[in-house]
Amino acid sequence: METTIPDYTGVKFKQGNEKLIVVLDAASAHLRGLLKKQGRADTGCLRIAVIGGGCSGLQYQMDLVDGPRDRDIIVPSNGVRVVIDPKSALFVSGSELDWSDDLQSGGFKVANPNAVVTCSCGESFAA
Questions:
Q1: What number of H helices and E strands is found in the chain?
Q2: How many domains are there within the chain?
């Protein structure tokens, strides 16, 4: 599925590719539904950031946003757009984003080849 990048006038961002992150089918379908529900289907993005915290030292922070900020990297993948700040990009390079409807551990899941340690709950990692 082709993903176009809208004209985010005045914002200085870089376009990345799926070597940084790939959005799998289930995550793409869920994201498209969320963005459509919020009225942001045309320009909205999922922001993924890596922040300090959790029992393994680092954790993901995700939010729906209207578009990239200056210096962000925008990755079109499977019909959606993901924005990542340059520092977080170092930690997520090569990752896959998936979605699970599982009752106990459902939600967005990042399969990160850079994570050398993950906690038992799956919410944090160390690189």
A1: 2, 10
A2: 1
